[in-house]
Automatic annotation (TrEMBL):
CDD domains: LysM, RPF. Keywords: Hydrolase. This is LysM repeat protein. Pfam families: LysM, Transglycosylas. Belongs to the transglycosylase family. Rpf subfamily. It comes from Micrococcus flavus.
Length: 240
């Protein structure tokens, strides 16, 4: 915030000195067209992040960052940051009436305040709020997108699990079918040795192509001597 120049302070002091007490009181009265509290809140947000009791030791005090000399010049008592928000605004209105918004050059420019304007530009006054709303909107959209992606992943996992089960069931069914087929083939293409049987008799009885030699070759894993077979042995009949 801009300080009073020495010439300004001298001019103000001489005016106050030449006035009656009533005139002095009138000089420190709030201007007729005072800015709104919202405007001062916007300036305080820019100057001090709305900390009306701030004193960082840099020579500026309170929510509107008065210097002690400017505070005293507009009738303030004590220190600005010890005064209430209402009192700080009251003294700021007097300062603004005397110096205009140039008393807060950076923030008034940022807020779009100039000349006799009493309200900050709508866009400039709330850039943080606009960014916050935009961020909230972006976050909500991203959240919805993530939920949709999660739902898609879950559906894909369920489909994969179902396909895996179906594949396993199909494999089990195929295995069972092969086993059944093998058992059927075995039932149809095997014969058990009975008393009095020989390879020659069995080959002739079952019309084995190639005779007893073919029957022997088909069962070499269990027959060591073609002339010696045992009752109860299960022999495979070669397929023609």
């Amino acid at each position: 915030m801009t300080l009073f120049s020495s010439s300004s302070r001298r001019a103000t002091a001489s005016v106050v000195t030449g006035m009656t007490l009533a005139g002095a009181a009138a000089a420190f009265a709030a201007p007729a067209q005072a800015a709104s509290v919202e405007t001062w809140d916007a300036i305080a947000s820019c100057e001090s992040t709305n900390r009306w009791d701030i004193n960082t030791g840099n020579g500026f005090y309170g929510g509107l960052q008065f210097t002690l000399s400017s505070w005293k010049a507009v009738g303030g008592e004590g220190y600005p940051h010890h005064a209430s928000k209402a009192e700080q605004i009251k003294r700021a209105e007097i300062l603004q009436d005397l110096q205009g918004w140039g008393a807060w050059p950076a923030c008034s420019k940022k807020l779009g305040l100039s000349g006799a304007d009493n309200a900050p530009d709508a866009y400039a006054a709330a850039p943080a709020a606009k960014v916050e709303r935009q961020s909230t909107t972006d976050w909500a959209a991203e959240q919805r997108a993530e939920e949709e992606r999660a739902a898609e992943r879950a559906e894909a996992q369920r489909a994969a699990a179902a396909a895996k089960v179906s594949k396993a069931e199909l494999a089990a069914a195929e295995k069972a079918n092969k086993k059944n087929a093998a058992e059927l083939d075995r039932a149809e293409d095997t014969v058990f040795v009975k008393p009095g049987d020989s390879l020659w008799k069995l080959a002739k009885k079952h019309d084995v192509q190639g005779g007893w030699q073919a029957l022997y070759e088909a069962n070499q894993d269990i027959i060591d001597d073609p002339s010696l077979i045992y009752i109860g042995q299960e022999l495979v009949l070669p397929v023609a």
